[in-house]
């Protein structure tokens, strides 16, 4: 392997930002893109939020609602690193794609609104990252506003999320009295100066120099020293190993909107995270320096251009080097495919890529060839990566074709769209009724739209009251007694699933059946 190739491999960082809506993910993303000089893209992120997608040819439904149904990928170059940010859709477009995206990244940045603390969507996304054991770095945002006490926030992280925390930076005041942050590693105060660029001042944590006095309100310094001492004595010990395994989250404080603390955070991020990590496959661990090309499809986006009915399969490159025009094998079918057209995603702009390395994400034109979780390999290789986990939907609808004569189109559409991972499909055991499950309401709307637009089938939905799906081991099914509040269905592969009306019913069930281990995420 050439040095150049090795550098390509080790300089990559592929991550997602997880947060609850309004915590500041978009603002932080913009500031990161600015760091890398992608000003054009920074504008694009904003445009997406305000729904001004003038030139885009995304699905009709996206245009109508001014949102993006699926996530995009932004790549930029910063301090010798190729950085890939994989966007996780939030707000109303929160869906299984949001979860699946997290299977394609090597680390995550968790943005917390300092005025609100840990919120619901953050918890859900955190769990997926935790399950994968990837590094999670925390950015506590909006320090320019009066928020929760920093110690309280740390406690919340530990208690609600169950992960150890280590504040790398520590805030000096907040809101109107926000003075800056102290970096415990660099032993420097980053002085907050509103819209002006930050200034850095040395401080050992105890001895207050004139320079320190010049920039930080004297009344804040003693409490700061006390707090730092408390952190040293009572706080967790820092461990690179624990960060690597996702057992400890380094915490940083800042204000994305003021672009404060963002650059120092990101510099630490690059140091504390690793190059793209190996993936398990049927041929064992595939490391990034494995000599042959391989990757897996984690998302399929349909109809980016309705005129062409094309789909884009998002592929995470895991080993080797992707070159446009190369011939690969789809492991599931053994079919050979020439990858002629491929794209890289820079926000809404699509650019053709000629080469890509492990950690990169590329979009492949797809005329219906790929399925979510598919492995693609080069050079006559034949292995498959581990299947992607399945995530529990929270909304359920019974569905059938309005016109029973259309059942052939209905079946075909159902099969194809479900394979794409647009929604999850369940069947009831005796009558074989179709039940759709989704993580977000929008998935149903997109599904309905596409069944009509692409298969000419009008759907009739009957909402269900159930809101919790749990996989149950096959050998325990017999023990379960169901009623209208707990129903038993099967997923597409025939795995039994229990749908509970609400958490109360679910907990009652668990209390009565302590020996049945229900699973919220199904890993194969
Ligand atoms: P997202 O929904 O997580 O992408 O959040 P946005 O980045 O769109 O931010 C939500 C709102 O919070 C917007 O009005 C932002 O201007 C505001 N915001 C973001 N970062 C900060 C911050 O550091 N301080 C303050 N005061 N507001 C912020």
CATH names the topology of the largest domain as Rossmann fold
- Small molecules bound in the structure, each named once: guanosine-5'-diphosphate
* Main beta sheet strand tally, sense and closure: 8 strands, antiparallel
Rounded mean pLDDT score: 87
Number of helices: 14
Low-pLDDT parts are 39-71
Class from secondary-structure proportions: alpha+beta
- The name of the CATH architecture of the largest domain is 3-Layer(aba) Sandwich
The count of strands amounts to 30
Largest beta sheet: what is the strand line-up? 18-17-23-14-15-22-19-20
What is the CATH domain class of the largest domain? Answer: Alpha Beta
In a nutshell, what does this entry contain?
Helix content is 28%, strand content 29%.
What does this structure look like?
- It holds the Pfam family GTP_EFTU.
- With 524 residues, this protein is an alpha+beta fold.
- The chain folds into three domains: 3-272, P-loop containing nucleotide triphosphate hydrolases (Rossmann fold, 3-Layer(aba) Sandwich); 282-377, Elongation Factor Tu (Ef-tu), domain 3 (Beta Barrel), CATH 2.40.30.10; 395-523, Alpha-Beta Plaits.
- The chain is built from 14 helices and 30 strands.
- The strands form seven sheets. The chain has an eight-stranded antiparallel sheet with strand order 18-17-23-14-15-22-19-20.
- Helix 2 packs antiparallel against helix 3 and helix 12 (407-420) crosses helix 13 (441-455).
- The two termini are 34 Å apart.
- Bound molecules: guanosine-5'-diphosphate.
- Residues 19, 21-27, 49, 141-142, 144-145, 255-257 line the site of guanosine-5'-diphosphate.
- The site of guanosine-5'-diphosphate has 16 residues, from helix 2.
């Amino acid at each position: 392997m050439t040095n150049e190739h090795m550098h390509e491999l080790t300089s990559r960082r592929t991550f997602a930002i997880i947060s609850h809506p309004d915590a500041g993910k978009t603002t932080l993303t913009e500031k990161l893109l600015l760091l890398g000089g992608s000003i054009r893209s920074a504008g694009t992120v904003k445009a997406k939020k305000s729904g001004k997608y003038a030139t885009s040819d995304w699905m009709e439904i996206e245009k109508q609602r001014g949102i993006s149904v699926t996530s995009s990928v932004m790549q930029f170059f910063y301090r010798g690193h190729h950085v890939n940010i994989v966007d996780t859709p939030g707000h109303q477009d929160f869906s299984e794609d949001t979860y699946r995206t997290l299977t394609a990244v090597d680390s995550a940045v968790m943005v917390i609104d300092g005025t609100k603390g840990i919120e619901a969507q953050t918890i859900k996304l955190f769990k997926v990252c935790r399950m994968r054991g990837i590094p999670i770095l925390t950015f506590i945002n909006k320090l320019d506003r009066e928020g929760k006490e920093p110690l309280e926030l740390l406690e919340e992280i530990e208690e609600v999320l169950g992960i150890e925390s280590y504040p790398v930076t520590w805030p000096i005041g907040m809101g109107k009295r926000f003075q800056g942050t102290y970096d415990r590693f660099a032993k420097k105060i980053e002085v907050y100066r509103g819209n002006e660029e930050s200034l850095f001042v040395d401080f050992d944590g105890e001895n207050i120099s004139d320079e320190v006095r010049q920039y930080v309100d004297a009344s804040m310094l003693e409490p700061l020293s006390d707090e730092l001492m408390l952190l040293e004595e009572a706080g967790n010990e820092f461990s690179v190993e624990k960060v690597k395994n996702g057992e400890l989250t380094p915490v940083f404080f800042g204000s994305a909107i003021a672009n404060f603390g963002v650059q120092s955070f990101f510099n630490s991020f690059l140091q504390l995270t690793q190059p793209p990590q190996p993936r398990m496959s049927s041929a064992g661990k595939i490391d990034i320096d494995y000599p042959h090309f391989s990757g897996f499809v984690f998302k399929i986006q349909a109809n980016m251009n309705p005129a062409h009915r094309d789909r884009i399969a998002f592929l995470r490159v895991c080993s080797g080097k992707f070159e446009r025009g190369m011939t690969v094998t789809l492991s599931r079918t053994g079919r050979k495919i020439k990858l002629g057209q491929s794209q890289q995603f820079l926000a809404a702009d699509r650019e053709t890529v000629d080469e890509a390395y492990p950690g990169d994400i590329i979009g492949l034109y797809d005329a219906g060839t790929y399925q979510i979780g598919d492995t693609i390999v080069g050079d006559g290789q034949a292995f498959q990566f581990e299947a992607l986990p399945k995530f529990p939907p929270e909304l359920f609808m019974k569905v059938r074709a309005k016109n029973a004569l259309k059942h052939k189109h209905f079946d075909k559409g159902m099969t194809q769209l479900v394979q794409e991972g647009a929604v999850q499909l369940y069947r009831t055991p005796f009558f074989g009724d179709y039940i759709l499950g989704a993580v977000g309401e929008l998935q149903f709307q997109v599904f309905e739209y596409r069944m009509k637009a692409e298969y000419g089938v009008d759907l009739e939905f009957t909402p269900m009251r159930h809101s919790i799906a749990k996989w149950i081991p096959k050998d325990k099914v017999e023990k379960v007694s169901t009623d209208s509040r707990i129903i038993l269905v099967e997923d597409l592969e025939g795995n039994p699933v229990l749908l509970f009306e609400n958490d109360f019913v679910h907990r009652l069930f668990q209390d009565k059946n302590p020996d049945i281990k229900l699973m919220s995420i199904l890993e194969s």
